[in-house]
Every structure is written in structure tokens, then in C-alpha cells.
Design goal:
Layout: H1 2-22, H2 31-41, E1 47-49, H3 52-59, E2 66-74, E3 82-88, H4 91-113, H5 117-124, E4 127-131, E5 134-139, H6 143-153
Antiparallel strand pairs: 1-2, 2-3, 3-5, 4-5
Amino acid sequence: MKKVLSVLMVCALALCLFTACSGGTTEAKPVADIYKQIEETVTLPELIDSDSNYIKNYYALDTADFEEYVFKSSADMMKADTIILIKAKDTDTVKKVEEQLGLILEQLKKENENYNPSEYEIINKGQLASKGNYVYLVISPDVDAIVNVINQNI
């Protein structure tokens, strides 16, 4: 009887450990909901939406390759604040989006390095990353808080 109880206890303990270590799976929220949560967490400047034509012309990206997206940039042309959240349809699109947004980020750095040093510092701390089929670019004085919200929801 003691052997049976010991085996059961070991199995129960192992099950608990595996469950705790798995981290569980959480369903990613829609990017619009994630953006709303960012707005509730951080005080943002006035940001405007980019339409599909602007995204295609400026970023060289086709929104038909996205399941959903949010492209926000500062209404003030002197500010670099940008929040881009994309859920791509496939991994090939993720790679393409990361490459294009990386080029845009580098271009912004070059444009502002000597012209607008305070914005250059913000741009230089910008974060471009992907997780699964999600890609994001965040340029903001509150980049860490915004990225934290994104990572908690994708």
C-alpha cells in the first residue's frame, strides 16, 4: 500500500511540475484591443491612422498580407512616435514586414540624427520585434511600457 501511495504522490508531483512549467497558453488578443490597452496604460500624443495606400507607398507593405493591423504615427511631423502592430497571415510575411520596418527605422535614425537630436534618441531606443505571426514597431518615450503591454497580449 505504501508503494502505491508513493507512486501516486510522485506522479501527482510530476504532473504539478509539468503544469507549472508549461506556462499555459493564452489566446492572443486582436491588435485593436492591444492598442486600446496601450492607450489605457500610457499617455500617448495625438496619433493618426495610416490607410492601406500610405502603408503600401511609404512602408512598401501590402495590407492584404495581414490578418489585422494597427499603423499609428504622430500627427506632429516633428515627432517620431509610432506604434505598428501587425498580425501577418504567414511566416514569410513576418520576415518581409520585419525587413521593411527595419529599413524604415534605420531611415528615421539617419534623418533625425543631426536634424532632430531629441527625437533621434527616442527613435534609437525604438523596438522592432516579432513573436509568432505578430510583428511590432514601437517608437515612443514610453517604449518599454508599450512593449510590455504588447508582449503580455500576443
